[in-house]
Each structure stands twice: as C-alpha cells, then as structure tokens.
Amino acid sequence: MVDLVLRSRRAVTPDGERPAAVVVGAGRIVAVEAYEAVVEAAEDVDLGELALLPGLVDTHVHVNEPGRTEWEGFATATRAAAAGGVTAIVDMPLNSLPPTVTVDALAVKKDAAAGRIHVDVGFWGGAIPGNAPDLPALHAAGVYGFKAFLADSGVPEFPPLNPGQLAEALAAVPAQFVVHAEDPDHLHAAVPSSAYADFLASRPPRAEHAAVATAIEAARAAGARVHILHLSAATALPLIAAARADGLRVTAETCPHYLTLEAAEIPAGATEFKCCPPIRDAANQEQLWSALAEGLITCVVSDHSPCTPDLKRQDTGDFAAAWGGIASVQLGLPVIWTAARARGHSLADVVGWMARRPADLVGLTGKGRIAVGADADLVAFDPDATFVVDPARLHHRNPVTPYAGKTLSGVVRTTWLRGQAVTGDAPQGRFLIREVS
Ligand SMILES: [Zn+2]
Fold first, then answer.
1. Per the confidence metrics, is the pTM higher than 0.90?
2. Pick from 252, 219, 254: nearest CA to 336
3. Where are the alpha helices (DSSP H) in 223-255?
C-alpha cells in the first residue's frame, strides 16, 4: 500500500498533458499510471478536471533574512511560495546581512531559516570583489553557484565586479554563475520624478546589451557556465543566440513582470512597478515572448525582491529614490498562465519555463517534473478559475504588488511538498544542497 494517489484528467508530465494517476510513496513519485488505475493507497484524491502540475522551482528569490527581515523572511517567503504553487526556491545571496559570500555567512543564513521553511530552499553564493578565494569552499558547502552584479546592486555590502574581477571569479571555481547584467557605463543617475519614463530613460537597453556582451566574453574566455538573470532588453537576445550557436554554456531567464507589464501603462508615482532592469515597452515584450517560444530564454522566475513600503517610497512616488524590486513569488504562476494562454501556449509550456528548466539550471533533476523517482512536489491548479489580486491575501511580509486589482486566470488549490499538503502550520521544507560530483 502506498501513501497517496492523485488523479487528474490534466496531469502535466514531461510528455505533455494527459489523464494520469500519480502514485506517491515515502515522499516520492513511485509510479505514473492511467487515470483509472486501481491503486491501494492510504489516501486517494480525484482532482477531476483540475490540472496536476509539478511544483514550480523558483531559482530567483530574495528572502532578505537575516538582517533585513522586515523586508521579507523565510517563513513568509516560503508560505507565499507554497500558496503560489512553488515548492522549491533558491535564495539570492544579497540583501540579507551578512550576504552569502563566505561559508560562515551561509551557516548564518541556514540558522535563520531552520525550522521556518514551508517549501524546500537552496542557496546561491555571491561573488564580490576580493572573495574569489572563498568561492571553492562555499561551492563545496552546497551553494548552487554564484551571483555577480556588473552594476551597483543597491546595497553597499554587495559591490559589483568589473570585467577583470568577473574573470577572476569564473576562474576560481567551475560553478554555475548567474549575472545581473547592466553596464554601469550606460546607466544614468535617475532624477527625482514620479514619471516612470524618467526612470526608464536612466536604464536604457544598451546598458543590458553591453553587460550581456561582457558576461558572454567572460564565459567564452573561461569556458564557464553563465546565466543571464532577469533579461528585460530584447536587443540583447541576438548576443545570447550567437553565444549559444558558438557552443558557449550561456542561458537566460526573464520574469513575469517583463512579460506582462508595459512601460506605457505604469501610472505616475506607481513605484510598485520599479525594478532593475526596468519594465520596457510593448514591442520589447513581444520579442521576449518570441524568445521564450523559441527556447532562447529558458526560464521564467520571479526575482521576488520585496522591501518595506517606506523604502518603496509609496508616500512620495519618487521612482529615483524607491527600492527597485517586485515581489511576486505567490503570483507568478497565474500571471504567466493568464498571458501565456492568451498567446496559445499550453500548461506544459508554462511548467517547462517555471518548473523543469529552472530545476535543470541548478541540477535539481528530482524536482520540477512529474516523473518516477522525482520528489512528490505537486500542485492542484484550476486553470479556468479567475480571481482578482487582493494584496491582503498575499503571504508576502509586505503585500505591495503591481498586480493589485488585476483579474488573473488560474488558482492554486493545494500544494504538496514530498506528498504532504502544505497548510502553513508545521513547516516541512528542507534545505537543498548541491550534489557534489
Ligand atoms: Zn534579483
């Protein structure tokens, strides 16, 4: 007798969407049978027309704990993740204090998270000027790779790398690097303004283009794996395509806000829309969707990066002074599903972008897919139900969101982590540690 069987007419497997019975034993998927299969199980749940998805894997989340826990925290971020159908996150190394740039700092972060996480949590390390000697030990301690900025990160304790320092970091350890690609030589100081256009003009597409070129050249010189984080400027896409055609191990992600929000529609003073790189125009957005459809952009992740309402300058609406970051770990799935469906994409496409490929980026081959042997991280999802985004229903510590009031399709009904429904009571999340090969 197994623990659980979940039956759905719309199970999203690596082969596409089909009726199936997903059989769970000891926290793992032990079989994927026909929908009607007779299975002796302690619990048998028929989801009918509700879709059954693998839990999403969000490799770009800023939890900010310890040190800036008033911005977010492990309990709130992971509760929000579970409510949004995300069963694994990989935490970014900055905005917490200390940033995750040494083995000791990783230990401090894990202490802060222990016993509080409702989904599984892995960690990125950080590459900053001077810490190249620390990278091998931090990698051996289980981080999935290293984040580097090429421009100011927004916090003083996590400075950017110049091209020489980036080369030094890539040479220090054979790891996955993930790069915030904006070139400081093409960024301008934003003038105090409540007009979004003024902020947008301070971070032009050429800043991303130049930094992506820098990252690709560094990857080429070192033979390294480099992933471009939160790509916004479509003008950089041909560079990535050319790098891949050359056989370089260069990949890219984008985020729900770049795919669904448009510069022209951002109201004056609406700093909840501020992020870096910025949300651009509709024509740019079309090109991001094309790149996703072609497989040039492989992942859609949240870049959940909250702060407190005062730092977001909700009072003055000054885009220049506001913290750049959009919190959306709870909303990414319905935001993307709503837009993807309208463009003719399938749930299987969405699962590829938001579950399987982010899992593959960090080598989590036992997550992000409904397959025998994978963790039983699963989501009952009603693709046809709609809801209006109410910030009061977000589990984020600071429920500030550019999606407030929007009507979205797709409601997460239940999220299971290793076969256990996530209720918000007893946290069942575990640490994810990179497997050392
Ligand atoms: Zn980020």
1. yes
2. 254
3. 237-245
Cα separation of 328 and 399, whole Å?
Answer: 9
Residues with Cβ within 8 Å of 65's Cβ and at least 6 positions away in sequence, in order, are: 72, 73, 74, 96, 109, 112, 113
**How far, in Å, CA of 313 to CA of 302, rounded?**
22
**For residue 269, what are its two tokens?**
């003073």
Rounded distance from Cα 153 to ligand 1 centre (Å): 9
Q: How far is the CA of 149 from the centre of ligand 1 (A)?
A: 10
Ligand 1 center from residue 8 Cα (angstroms) = 35
- d(CA 304, ligand 1 centre) in Å: 7
- DSSP readout, 150-206? SS--SSTTSPPPPHHHHHHHHHH---EEEEE---GGG--PPPS-S-HHHHHHHS-HH
Q: What separation in Å is there between the alpha carbon of 305 and the centre of ligand 1?
A: 6
Dist CA 433 CA 88 (whole Å): 12
Give 437's pLDDT tier (boundaries 50, 70, 90): low
Give the CA radius of gyration of the chain.
Answer: 21
Tell me the average pLDDT across 186-202.
96
The rounded Å distance from CA 18 to ligand 1 centre is: 35
Distance in Å, CA 306 to ligand 1 centroid: 10
The DSSP bridge partners found for residue 12 are 17
The alpha carbon of 60 and the centre of ligand 1 are apart by a number of angstroms equal to 6
CA 416–ligand 1 middle distance (angstroms): 26
Distance 49 CA to ligand 1 centre (A): 35
Cα distance between residue 20 and residue 6, in whole Å? 8
42 alpha carbon – ligand 1 mean position (Å): 41
What is the whole-number distance in angstroms between the Cα of residue 62 and the centre of ligand 1?
Answer: 6
Going by pLDDT thresholds of 50, 70 and 90, the confidence category of residue 314 is: confident
* Token pair 């931090």 in the structure block, residue: 138
423 CB contacts (<8 Å, ≥6 apart)? none
Terminal-to-terminal C-alpha distance of the chain: 35
Structure token pair of residue 346: 């399938």
For ligand 1, the distance from its centroid to the CA atom of residue 107, given in whole angstroms, is 21
Query: What number of residues does the chain have?
Result: 437
What is the four-CA torsion angle of 359, 362, 363, 369, rounded to 10 degrees?
A: 0
DSSP 8-state assignment for residue 213: H
